[in-house]
Each structure stands twice: as structure tokens, then as C-alpha cells.
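Can anyone check this?
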Amino acid sequence: MLLSLGMLMLSATQIYTIFTVQLFAFLNLLPVEADIAAYSFDNKTENFDDLPARFGYRLPSDGLKGFLIGARPENACQPIEPPPRDNLTGAFIVLIKRFDCNFDIKVLNAQKAGYKAAIVHNVDSDDLISMGSNDVDVMKQIIIPSVFVSEETANSLKDDYMYDKGGHVVLMPDFSLPLEYYLIPFLIIVGICLILIVVFMISKFVQDRHRARRSRLRKDQLKKLPIHKYKKGSEAVPNISVCSVCRAISSQAKASSVPSSCRYGD
């Protein structure tokens, strides 16, 4: 039984995990880690770590190539200048400074200006932050992808890979499925199975107790049994009337077994 239950748990976990992955893939909610590949005019190449936002579209599977331009104003809390119009063959990506307003406002202003993606960088820190939004109306308007980078990454991009210096960048996604996407469904299935096992054991215990009580004589029935005391040395003779009482009471209680003889103590 335990083996069958274990196989059932494994099969249910596999089905649940596959269903979860397919659902998240369909809704574009799979966790994504991205890298920035930067190329300078003299063929210098560097890769930088980033963290994608929790709003907007995700990066295409083949990456997003574009020319990097600094936002004006830098924090993009107000409408920013659009990208140059002299290059009609490539996309433009804007580099935005953190703070002064919410992340979703920054990215929305970049989108309205005509940029295809936004890179928001930290200030006085190299920590990566997962950008989120608390405004549903603003979040629904954002369709461009955006990522967050450290201040060190931003400084390197400004030094060698900006559009005015002949460089360009490629935002590359790295689709990955972390352990919790397998662990959470497994724990849910295991928890449900444990609850079912406990319920089954409690039910079985209650049924056994109820069945045992039904096969016993009640206290009022036990009081009806006559009591005979024998002295030491006296011969114990079976009392037919007492046995008849035993059988009658047992029959009334519908016991599973009827005593064939009555025993008395010394």
C-alpha cells in the first residue's frame, strides 16, 4: 500500500510540475535571468549581469540588440528625449538612473519616447534589485522589456559601449527554472498525501474502537450477572442458570462470540 501511495505521489508531482511549467510558459511568467553582452567599435566585448523587471514583456529568445543612449533627464521621472532619428536600421536602448520615482514610471517614459528597452542602474551600490510595480494601470501600459544593473556595470557601459562611442549592446535572456518550481509542487502533493493518511488512520481507529465496544457487555448488563462466592475447598459446580444468563445477555448485545462456559474465581 505504501509503495502504491509513493508511486501515486511521484506521478501526481510530475503531472503537477509539467502543468505548472506549461502554464507559466504560456503566461510568459517563467523566471528569467538575463545577461548584457556589450560590444565596442574596436571589437572589445564584455558581459554584465542584470536582473529583469517583473513588469513589461520579457526579452525575445534570440536577444534584443540595440544602441545604448543615456536618458535625459537621467532619472526619467519626466518625459525624456527620444532617440536620434539618423539611424533607422537599429533599435535604441536607454540607460536610466535609479531613484526619485518608481521603476514603472521610468520604463513607461522610456517606452513613450520610442525606446525598445530600458536599463535601470543602481546608485552607490552594486546590488541587483528586482523591479516591480504597485500601479496596475501603469503596469498594463508597459510593453517593452527592462532590466536592472549595478552602478559598476553602468559606469563600464558609459565608458566604452554607448551609441556615441560606436558601441552597441545585446540583452540576452537566460531561461531557467529554479528549484522551488519543482519543490513547491512536490511539497504540496506530499502534504496532501500525509493529510489523507492521517485521516484514514483516524477513521480506522474510530471504526475499530466502535466495533470493540459493540462486542462488549454494557455496565448495566454486567450488573445483572449473579455473583457466587465459594470458600476454599468447596467444589466448583457449573451453574446452568448463570450460563443461561450469560447467553441471553450476549444474544441481546449481538456479540460476535457467545461464551460457551462461565468461569468463576477462587
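Reply from J.R.: I decoded it. Residues 25-33, 254-266 have pLDDT under 50 and may be disordered.
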